[in-house]
Amino acid sequence: MTDVTEQDSGAGSDRAAHLRERMVAELIGNGDIVSGPVEAAMRTVAREVFVPEVGLEDAYNAYDAVVTKRDGNGNAVSSVSAPQAQAAMLEQADLGPGMRVLEVGSGGCNAAYLAELVGPTGAVVSVDIDEDVVERARRLLAKAGYPRVDVVLADAELGVPEHAPYDRILVTAGAWDVPPAWFSQLVEGGVLVAPLRVRGLTRTVSLALADGHLSSRSTRLFGFVPMRGTGAHDGMLWELRDGEIGLRFDDVFDGDPALLKDVFDGERTDVWSGATIGRTELLATVQMWLATALPGFCTVVVDKARATGVVSLPGNRTSALGAVDGANLAYVTTRATDDEDLVEFGVHAYGPQALRLAEETAEHLRTWSRVHRGGPGPRITVHPAGTADDELPDGRVVDKTHSRVTISWPIAANVAPGREALHHPTE
Ligand SMILES: C[S@@+](CC[C@H](N)C(=O)[O-])C[C@H]1O[C@@H](n2cnc3c(N)ncnc32)[C@H](O)[C@@H]1O
Q: Is 113 in the pocket of ligand 1 (CB under 6 A)?
């Protein structure tokens, strides 16, 4: 890995220009860049200026983020996002000249793309909670020729009221909730694009604001560093068997972990669903369907260092989708079929009513296979907390601190094709 030198940095460098063209062509080929303005912005910005710690090849790798800061445990707390995620989010945001945009999370690079897209009559405000990140973004934006981007040091939980309202808000850190400021600082008809975590699953959703609530327009799958500050959310972890097995619940779940203390001491019940999935097919809709359908949905995580095989998963997998119901626990697994391209979903369950919970879970898998497999995925709406139940659409309601998120499943045939695109090569 070589550092970018004065000689090969900047939009004028032949090598950088060549790699930029290659990256843009790749993103067009994948369907991540679909519009002329996003293509033009990504062809224009000298991305390498924003990641001076890596060489040009890494700066223009379409699929990898460049981590720019880690915490004491080595976890990434800041990065310049992968070009693919940036392109997809810019497309989801549907930006135009003259718009006022708030970016939550500053790396400099994405703000430069935003500045290109809104042009000289628009405005870009980028907010970050981390002083180092803010200083770096300001310095590199000036160097790259974007001194008009306003980089603000603040916790984005409160937005940036002094420059509001915004036509677009792009959130580039993983969000668990939609705080009131993001509603109030967005114009009516404005769009919020955010990686929103619901039931432990993160989906990058483009949501339009109308009549006081947000409705999804498109969904993509990308991972981001988690939100810090007031909006940080850890969820809940139940540890079983001295920490060998963890059950992660992302939202409020009022079960009783004591009921599961000895759950693995009983016999295991297996139910095979007959529902299959391609080995390379995306798990996105089946994950979200189970998260919607199962009231006690959780993620079952195995600590590799302590694993005794009591939770048995194929290959090297150490986590599975699961559900808790009273003193019963079920998790989803797969097995090979006669067709080498397909695996079959099944359920392993423990507890006094293991068979009932396993059958119920298997039936949800069959429903997914029959009705939603390859379909448009769920529609997500976000209402402010306190919205009455009868004002919410039909669907699974997930209550957050500041908002009520509803996940509904339109039947594929009733939805215009392409309105919801769920595709990501790595998940
Ligand atoms: C993935 S990075 C941003 C990438 C950037 N948009 C780019 O150019 O690719 C996410 C950033 O969000 C910031 N962040 C996390 N929580 C925040 C909060 N509550 N308010 C503002 N920024 C926050 C982190 O400090 C981090 O720098």
A: no
Q: Is the CB–ligand 1 distance for residue 80 below 6 Å?
A: yes
Cite the beta strand spans of 142-249 per DSSP E: 150-153, 166-171, 186-198, 201-210, 213-220, 236-240, 245-249
Q: Are 156 and 229 in contact (CB under 8 A)?
A: yes
Q: What's the CA-to-centroid distance between 304 and ligand 1, angstroms?
A: 31
CATH of 4-231 given 3.40.50.150, 3.40.50.300, 3.20.20.60, 2.30.30.60: 3.40.50.150
Report percent pLDDT > 70 for the chain. Answer: 93
Q: Which atom of ligand 1 is nearest to the CA of 155?
A: 20
Q: Say how far apart CA 105 and CA 175 lie, in whole Å.
A: 11
Q: What is the pLDDT of residue 315?
A: 85
Judge if the beta carbon of residue 160 lies within 6 A of ligand 1: no
Average pLDDT, the chain: 92
Check: CB of residue 351 under 8 Å from CB of residue 266: yes
Task: Locate the domains of the chain by residue range.
Answer: 4-231, 236-372, 380-408
For residue 81, indicate whether it is catalytic: yes
The closest-lying atom of ligand 1 relative to the alpha carbon of residue 126 is: 6
| Mean pLDDT to the nearest integer, 38-48 | 98
Q: From the CB of 68, is ligand 1 less than 6 Å away?
A: no
